């Protein structure tokens, strides 16, 4: 298949491009810069210049492809309203282009607030609806397109998709720990984060492209729930820093914008994903990656 991938030069996107090419697909990646285009071409993909605000380019890329994988997000945590609006508009544009075609449309989603306090499953619907909600309610917007002839599939990524080179949430937590001189965890640290190695997450996307039923939700989850205390302890050991509890009232001041995410309980099962795709994660665990120095730069 010819697969149009947004976010193709990013952390997860680069791994997904490698998996898709290894499976024999032709990949066209959305590239915001000449440098991103060059990285894509070096991996064996084609580059299409543009960004998430280029709706004409998004529509053309989708129409010219046999499938779409939408991974890009602005991730501007200082202006979430604009980030969410962009995500919703891009999802709507890609979905409209694919209506009536039956083509696969895989979209990156997340596990925040899906089932706090228990393991989220693929049966649990997203609680985010409408343009003013997290990610612009893009998961629910995506799944509305199943009734419009789109083979829509939501891929929920763990809050940490880790590995050497990751500059995501755990890397931010490591930076906070270095700046504060202590590796902190919210409260008693009993809230949990699901985790997955980046290569395993990419394999979920590649398998989901051809195996996932329309309207399904996939969980790119290898470890169901690692407590934030365990994460803090692993970072403390790797960075040679003490570990301490941060009182709930002080979380925002201590951690900054990431504090709200680190205080969430985001544990999830991937049992249905493993069964439907025949997927089994093989990469290192999060704590093993931390111990091996993935976040000690």
Automatic annotation (TrEMBL):
Pfam short name (any one): Epimerase
Q: Do you know which InterPro entries this protein is assigned to?
A: Epimerase_deHydtase, NAD(P)-bd_dom_sf, NAD(P)-dependent_oxidoreduct
Signal peptide, first to last residue: none
Gene Ontology terms: cellular component: cytoplasm
Q: Which domain of life is it from?
A: Bacteria
| Ranges where the NAD-dependent epimerase/dehydratase domain occurs | 3-212
This protein's name: NAD-dependent epimerase/dehydratase
Q: Which taxonomic lineage is given here?
A: Bacteria, Bacillati, Actinomycetota, Actinomycetes, Pseudonocardiales
